[in-house]
């Protein structure tokens, strides 16, 4: 054994020992929780046969019409989509399987995939008593689940050939990778997948927390949200505030990052100070803003304005100003995050490119817009995605501290609230005594869908135009 | 490799020890948990509760009472406790806010006091103040044990009254008198450096008081007490009179608030930083108001809650909280929990609690004893709250309203008032829209719960 090899073995043992020690400590100190988790998982496994039995008896008692309809929609979706994809692949000269067989396979899998959504909603959207909007929404849901099941199939059939094993690293023991993945998978199942499924089931119920009785209402919660003028306005408000927050925070962050990247004395201190707002939790930063903008005379800003100019704007009680304050607070909170990334990005812009541009006679402004900005595109794209997500999900703390979704629009807020963003409305509806949690769950599903669609759109439209250097 | 196996073996045995070696709980020791909202950092009320719990444990050595506060917010505390209950981890005793009693009853997570107390304990209930008892009685049963009761009073700045040439010993008593007083105070606005004459939270609680004073109902079916309420009375002449008061004060610029509804802390700051001359707040904040006004160097005045008019003499309702025993515990634990809440609200501890917190006493015997001690003569502001409540005529109107979705109903009313103050809506339009929203919430709730 060489010296390096021995050192390697030693460090591996050291790390293993540390991991083992940590695991032992964790197991010992969290034994009660782990025990409950274990029982919960075992109960889940134990309940599996019963669930399958229930599913079988459900399908046996299901009338033919809804079943056939759902199979038809799923099959048609799968078949048609597989046909289109297959044709496109053939035209591109890709290795593609036999088209008719692929379509048949796609249709079959589409039928099965459609049953996921259909069984979860108890085929209610395919019954005669379903409302027209429910039927449409139900068909959309069926198509989406059918496609979701089909996507892995296409990837398998049409995707690139697998990378040769020898080229990439691989595990000698075939169970080791699974063992290493297990903690992540387990926490994903316990904290993400299982709650998501539960939430979807809840969104089909009329239920009031904490009353235990619930009533199945099919997609009723979704439909009444679509028809609710307060929800429509909330959606609009969300888009407006999101646009201002994202544009404002990214433009300001870029400007500050450019300034902070200049070679000046104490640049490190400036950068640290500029980044620190991000270290504050949204509620804390909102509390700071509340102390500044609070009305009634005890807010800092109005106190100063009254002293100097003799005016006291209704920051939180005027619909336009309240939106401005919320946008301002949201921008301030995310600014540090954006600045970090832009400073890092600016450091990665190659000097020689700028010098070359300078030699070609480009002035500072031209160099910034023609060289630096395009080189920052990957950062801008990443920040755009994270900032949109932040604007949709991250501002409810600020709204709760500052305006509680108000000021009300229309008499008694019958048109909603000026800062009642979707996430705040969801929070407000879900966490109050007697909360209509079925409707809140439906709102969560909508909100997730909107953000998912927006993210996909951004990747589809913008990422194509970005070069990641190299 | 041997050492790998050894490691696996060691971990496995550790897991086994962890799973099997959980020490067996001692059987004769009873442990109960009590959660309340007084968990703020400088909230001395938590110490008062702890002292009472210590006294209880000294009398019952086999019982351990763990007092804690999972939230300083009633709603959050309630949600936390019920979420824990769904996991089978409910605390034994939960403090529940006044407006949540219908929901707590409907939730079926709680024992009703009348169902689980011993006959001797039930006999002591006759000592409760009639208004307090009426508030927590549904279908003839005491559902939760009233504990921390309060109601709103008027706080005013005596120095400003003097500066405006008003008699600081004659604070306004009615809506009309508030408007008159404010006219004189606002004439001195520049000199007093105030933003408005009066501030108080936009809160449903005050409107409920003012309705009760006019002997008017908040919701139908006897305020939801003879059957489930199906309709709110937001467009009644009595409610419109209240809404008109907000409208008048807005038009004249006498009123201000922090921009957030129900912001009792923020409104307190506005008043205590001498930006207004009057405010309305709960008696529970009395000690805080007294301390801070001293620090701010002004003379604090206290007076009974203003009334809509001289004719509104029906009296106030009770606000505050009650304590409830959750289901799903062993008989011994449940009994210990019930014993503890009766200990907590015994005459002696009722007096300790009143003196330590500012909440008013809930037993007639406590008030008699406090009177005999001369406590109210030494502390006139406390007498205001108690007298205000004692003068209340016991009837359906000031028993308070009970509905399941009380949060939504109150929210609708607050948005209505807010749209009058900020949006310039007419009282009629705002209250009609608020009624529509509240009625919808009632219908949805009733459809889920059934009758």
Write the layout of secondary structure elements.
The complex is a heterodimer of chains A (470) and B (451).
Chain A: H1 3-29, H2 31-61, H3 64-91, H4 99-120, H5 132-158, H6 176-202, E1 205-207, E2 214-216, H7 220-227, H8 229-260, H9 267-275, H10 282-293, H11 300-308, H12 319-347, H13 351-359, H14 364-375, H15 377-393, H16 396-402, H17 422-430, H18 437-462
Antiparallel strand pairs in A: 1-2
Helix pairs in contact in A: 3-4, 3-5, 4-5, 8-12, 8-15, 10-12, 10-16, 12-15, 13-14, 15-18, 17-18
Chain B: H1 2-20, E1 30-35, H2 45-59, E2 63-68, H3 74-86, E3 93-97, H4 101-107, E4 110-111, H5 113-116, H6 119-123, H7 130-135, E5 137-138, E6 141-142, E7 145-150, E8 152-157, H8 158-163, H9 175-187, H10 189-192, E9 198-199, H11 204-213, H12 220-224, H13 237-252, E10 255-256, H14 264-272, E11 278-282, H15 286-296, E12 300-304, E13 319-326, H16 331-344, H17 347-357, H18 364-373, H19 375-378, H20 380-390, H21 406-421, H22 427-449
Helix pairs in contact in B: 2-17, 17-18, 21-22
Pick out its properties.
heterodimer, A: mainly alpha, MetI-like fold, two-stranded antiparallel sheet, 73% helix, B: 451 residues, alpha/beta, D-Maltodextrin-Binding Protein, domain 2, six-stranded mixed beta sheet, 22 helices, 13 strands
Q: Rg of chain B to the nearest angstrom? A: 25 Å
The CATH class of the largest domain in chain B turns out to be Alpha Beta
Number of strands of chain B: 13
Poorly predicted runs of chain B: none
At CATH's second level, what is the architecture of the largest domain in chain B? 3-Layer(aba) Sandwich
**Number of domains as seen in the coordinates of chain A:** 3
| Total strands of chain A | 2
């Amino acid at each position: 054994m060489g010296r390096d090899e021995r050192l390697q073995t030693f460090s591996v043992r050291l790390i293993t020992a540390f991991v083992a020690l940590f695991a032992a400590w964790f197991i010992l100190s969290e034994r009660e929780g782990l025990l409950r988790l274990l029982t919960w998982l075992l109960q889940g496994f134990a309940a599996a046969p019963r669930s399958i039995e229930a599913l079988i008896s459900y399908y046996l008692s299901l009338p033919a019409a809804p079943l056939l309809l759902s199979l038809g929609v799923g099959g048609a979706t799968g078949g048609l989509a597989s046909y289109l994809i297959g044709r496109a692949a053939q035209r591109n000269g890709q290795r593609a399987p036999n088209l008719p067989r692929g379509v048949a396979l796609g249709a079959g899998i589409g039928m099965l995939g459609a049953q996921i959504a259909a069984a979860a909603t108890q085929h209610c959207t395919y019954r005669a008593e379903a409302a027209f909007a429910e039927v449409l929404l139900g068909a959309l849901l069926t198509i989406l689940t059918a496609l979701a099941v089909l996507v892995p199939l296409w990837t398998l059939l049409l995707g690139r050939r697998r990378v040769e094993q020898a080229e990439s690293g691989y595990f000698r023991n075939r169970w080791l990778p699974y063992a290493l993945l297990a903690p992540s998978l387990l926490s994903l199942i316990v904290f993400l997948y299982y709650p998501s499924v539960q939430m979807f089931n809840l969104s089909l119920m009329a239920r009031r927390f904490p009353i235990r009785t619930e009533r199945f209402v099919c997609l009723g919660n979704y439909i009444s949200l679509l028809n609710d003028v307060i929800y429509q306005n909330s959606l609009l408000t969300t888009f407006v505030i999101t646009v201002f927050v994202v544009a404002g925070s990214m433009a300001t962050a870029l400007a500050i990052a450019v300034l902070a990247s200049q070679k000046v004395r104490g640049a490190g201190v400036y950068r640290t100070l500029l980044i620190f707002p991000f270290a504050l939790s949204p509620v804390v930063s909102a509390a700071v803003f509340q102390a500044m903008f609070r009305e009634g005379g005890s807010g800092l800003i109005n106190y100063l304005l009254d002293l100097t100019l003799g005016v006291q704007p209704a920051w939180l009680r005027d619909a336009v100003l309240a939106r401005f304050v919320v946008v301002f607070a949201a921008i301030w909170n995310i600014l540090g995050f954006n600045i970090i990334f832009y400073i890092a990005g600016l450091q990665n812009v190659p000097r020689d490119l700028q010098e070359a541009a300078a030699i070609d006679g480009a002035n500072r402004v031209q160099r910034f817009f023609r060289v630096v900005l395009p080189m920052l595109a990957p950062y801008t794209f990443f920040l755009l995605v994270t900032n949109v997500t932040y604007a949709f999900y991250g501002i409810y703390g600020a709204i709760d501290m500052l305006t509680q979704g108000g000021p009300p629009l229309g008499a008694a807020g019958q048109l909603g609230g000026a800062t009642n963003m979707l996430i705040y409305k969801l929070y407000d509806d879900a966490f109050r005594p007697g909360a209509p949690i079925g409707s809140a769950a439906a709102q969560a599903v909508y909100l997730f869908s909107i953000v998912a669609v927006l993210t996909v759109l951004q990747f589809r439209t913008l990422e194509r135009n970005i070069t990641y250097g190299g | 490799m041997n050492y790998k196996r050894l490691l696996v073996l060691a971990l496995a045995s550790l897991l086994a020890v962890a799973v099997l070696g959980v020490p067996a709980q001692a059987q004769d020791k009873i442990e109960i948990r009590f959660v309340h909202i007084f968990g703020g950092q400088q909230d001395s009320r938590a110490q008062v509760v702890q002292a009472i719990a210590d006294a209880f444990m000294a009398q019952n050595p086999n019982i351990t009472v763990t007092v804690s506060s999972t939230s300083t917010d009633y709603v959050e505390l309630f949600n936390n406790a019920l979420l824990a209950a769904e996991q089978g981890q409910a605390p034994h005793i939960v403090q529940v806010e006044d407006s949540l009693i219908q929901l707590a009853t409907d939730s079926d997570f709680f024992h009703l006091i009348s169902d689980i107390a011993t006959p001797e304990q039930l006999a002591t209930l006759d000592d409760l103040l009639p208004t307090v008892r009426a508030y927590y009685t549904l279908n003839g049963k005491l559902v939760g044990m009233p504990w921390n009761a309060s109601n709103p009073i008027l706080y005013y700045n005596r120095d400003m009254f003097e500066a405006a040439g008003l008699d600081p010993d004659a604070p306004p008593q009615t809506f009309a008198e508030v408007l008159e007083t404010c006219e004189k105070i606002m004439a001195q606005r520049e000199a007093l450096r105030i933003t408005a004459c009066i501030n108080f939270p936009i809160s449903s609680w005050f409107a409920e008081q003012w309705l009760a004073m006019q002997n008017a109902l908040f919701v139908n079916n006897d305020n939801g007490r003879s059957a489930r309420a199906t309709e709110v009375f937001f467009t009644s002449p009595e409610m419109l009179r209240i809404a008109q008061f907000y409208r008048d004060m807005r038009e004249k610029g006498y009123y201000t608030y922090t921009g957030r509804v129900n912001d009792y802390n923020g409104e307190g700051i506005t008043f205590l930083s001498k930006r207004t001359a009057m405010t309305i707040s709960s008696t529970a904040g009395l000690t805080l108001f007294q301390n801070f006004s001293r620090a701010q160097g002004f003379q604090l005045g206290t007076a009974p809650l203003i009334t809509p008019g001289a004719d509104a003499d029906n009296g106030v309702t009770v606000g505050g909280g009650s304590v409830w025993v959750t289901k799903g515990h062993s008989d011994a634990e449940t009994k210990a929990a019930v014993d503890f809440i009766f200990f907590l609200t015994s005459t002696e501890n009722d007096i300790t609690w009143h003196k330590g917190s500012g909440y008013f006493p809930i037993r007639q015997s406590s008030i008699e004893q406090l009177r005999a001690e001369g406590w109210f003569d030494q502390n006139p502001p406390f007498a205001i709250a108690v007298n205000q409540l004692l003068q209340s005529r016991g009837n359906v109107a000031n028993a308070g309203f009970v509905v399941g979705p009380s949060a939504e109903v109150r929210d609708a009313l607050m948005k209505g008032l807010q749209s009058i103050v900020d949006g310039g809506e007419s009282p009629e339009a705002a209250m009609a829209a608020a009624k529509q929203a509240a009625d919808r919430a009632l219908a949805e709730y009733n459809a889920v719960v059934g009758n």
